[in-house]
Amino acid sequence: METKEYNLAISNHDFKVKGYWLDQVEDFGQTVDYPIVIICPGGGFTFHSQREEEPIALRFNSFGMHVVVLEYKLIDDTPVFPTALQEMAKTIDWINQQPASRHIDKKRIILAGFSAGGQIVSAYNGIGTDPKLRKKYQIDQYSGDFAATILGYPVVDMTVKGSFPADDKIRQQISTDETFWQTQNYLNGNSKPSFVWQTRTDELVNISNSLMYVGKMNQLNLPVEYHLFGSGIHGLALGTYVTKKPGKDKYLNARAAGWIDLAMSWLEMMKLLG
């Protein structure tokens, strides 16, 4: 396997992605084009959680998928959106420009977002699949499509009381454009299938976020699978010792840790894996 960082750019803004590329297996006797996952880690738009980067990337690798981690824009002097959406579009475009020797199945690009990263992915599944909004937010200049999304304890609706973000100041730092405050409203007939999971006792992102997203997907008759685990804190990542913070057993959750096997089974059912 090859791991490599890349510098990409949109307009005058630079950002980084990190690739986890699978090698070909000589024993197969033929080459294989692998699906690829773009991971948007969480971190409340103030940092990129490493617990939701390489540990999850390697698990996806173990199922026969290339992975790219997107280090999207964080809160600074300018709002996160729409720049983060443009970064996603550029990343998809960049993947589509990769040579055949990289062995990517470009028809099986999966977007995976966790917590704040889930806001970006859920927004892209709505705004990024609407031709008028693609033009409005200047992402129509980038080529390439994606096939599905995976959302883990995602931020979807930033107007929910008692949920992230804590106040209007942070919401305005994330986006001054209210379009990005309720991403479920922009899901449409072109939006892609989604696998969504969360825990009922999530103390940071109220479960109404994922419920509203899934409800809108169902209303549009779009393929969706939802798993609400009975207990567990926010930010479980893998829910195993690999992503457990030292001395904090609350980051272990054997039942919720099954989300990744469920997600892979779902991708298999959707003909996006294997």
UniProtKB/TrEMBL annotation:
GO terms for molecular function: hydrolase activity. Keywords: Hydrolase. It comes from the Bacteria. Residues 30-212 form the BD-FAE-like domain. SUPFAM superfamilies: alpha/beta-Hydrolases. Signal peptide: none annotated. It holds the Pfam family BD-FAE. Gene3D superfamilies: alpha/beta hydrolase. InterPro entries: AB_hydrolase_fold (IPR029058), BD-FAE-like_dom (IPR049492), GDXG_lipolytic_enzyme (IPR050300). This is Putative lipase esterase (Putative).
